[in-house]
Design brief:
This protein is α/β, with parallel strands linked by helices. The chain has a domain of 200 residues: Vaccinia Virus protein VP39 (Rossmann fold, 3-Layer(aba) Sandwich). Helix content is 26%, strand content 38%. A hairpin with a 5-residue loop joins strand 17 and strand 18. Helix 2 runs parallel beside helix 3.
């Protein structure tokens, strides 16, 4: 029987090398290691707590959109081509190489640290668990699982992102992650035919995108197929993390989980960051399921 905890929020406030300084006016002011950036944040519709001058004084660079999907960085100070931030988990330190990309992202979603902790805790239940990370981006969840002793298969459709993830693994002093440039849904279908199973599946699907061979992905059209496939490659004792930035609410994720998983313990929540100036910023929704 599937049981749910009360819907809640997961607060990612355990960083030493990252801080959300302020947010509001459609932007957020963040410090990644030694550098402070201004990036768009459409959900931050309230006024800023700090003044415009304080934002300007603190910022090293600001992202300005030039289209719906891309833009440019305006540098106020010297920001290197890349730099490193770290995150300790268990007895390991995860290291991430950051860059100012033309898509406003820098190679890290700090709010995911709450999920990394959950993944590491779940992996500790097993001896050498197999974990599948789909839509894996630059590999935070893969590194967290690897640090907890998992055999990780990391799947992403973009070759350059796979290379970036591999660099993060090497910077973290790790090895052994299996890298695949593959369409996530097609890979799941192949694993079903092969009879493969995993103790953990992590999914962070985008709202829309293209696979390596031009496969079209639209979350609301594909999410049921994805979850149905994932169910078929889960070991009896296992866990699932489903993260979305698409506007799906925790209630929407709860309905999806009820549809595709008939037993286990589940929790759906908002991922939330706390500004140093006091407000909380919602960054997406997540469902976590534990089967035992």
């Amino acid at each position: 029987m599937l049981t749910f905890a009360h819907m809640s929020t997961f607060l990612s406030d355990d960083w030493k090398s990252y801080s959300l300084i302020d947010c509001g006016g459609g932007e957020k002011l963040e410090k990644f290691g030694d550098f402070t950036l201004i990036r768009p944040e459409p959900t931050a519709v309230w006024p800023r707590k700090l003044s415009t001058q304080e934002w300007k004084n603190k910022a090293d660079a600001r992202f300005e959109p030039t289209s719906k999907t891309a833009g440019q960085w305006i540098r106020f100070n010297d920001v290197p081509k890349s730099w490193i931030v770290d995150y300790p988990i268990n007895d390991h330190t995860l290291n991430f190489e950051l860059q100012l990309t033309k898509f406003k992202h820098v190679g890290l979603f700090p709010e995911q640290s709450s999920n990394w902790q959950f993944i590491a805790q779940q992996c500790a239940r097993f001896e050498n668990p197999k974990v599948l990370n789909l839509f894996a981006y630059t590999g935070g969840a893969s590194l967290a699982a690897n640090a907890a002793g998992a055999n990780v298969t990391h799947v992403d459709a973009i070759k350059q992102v796979i290379s970036w993830s591999r660099k993060n693994m090497e910077l973290s002093g790790m090895e052994g992650i299996r890298w695949l440039v593959e369409d996530a849904l097609k890979f799941v279908e192949k694993e079903i035919r092969r009879g493969k199973t995993y103790e953990g599946i992590v999914m962070d699907p985008p709202a829309w995108g293209l696979g390596p061979k031009g496969e079209k992905w639209k979350l609301e059209q594909k999410v049921n197929e994805l979850l149905n496939g994932a169910r078929h490659i889960l070991a009896k004792e296992s866990f699932v993390v489903l993260n979305t930035y698409s506007g799906f609410s925790p209630q929407t994720l709860q309905n999806l989980v009820k549809t595709h998983f008939k037993e286990g313990k589940a929790e759906t929540a908002e991922l939330v960051q706390k500004c140093e100036t006091g407000n909380h910023l919602s960054t997406g929704s997540v469902a976590r399921i534990e089967f035992s």
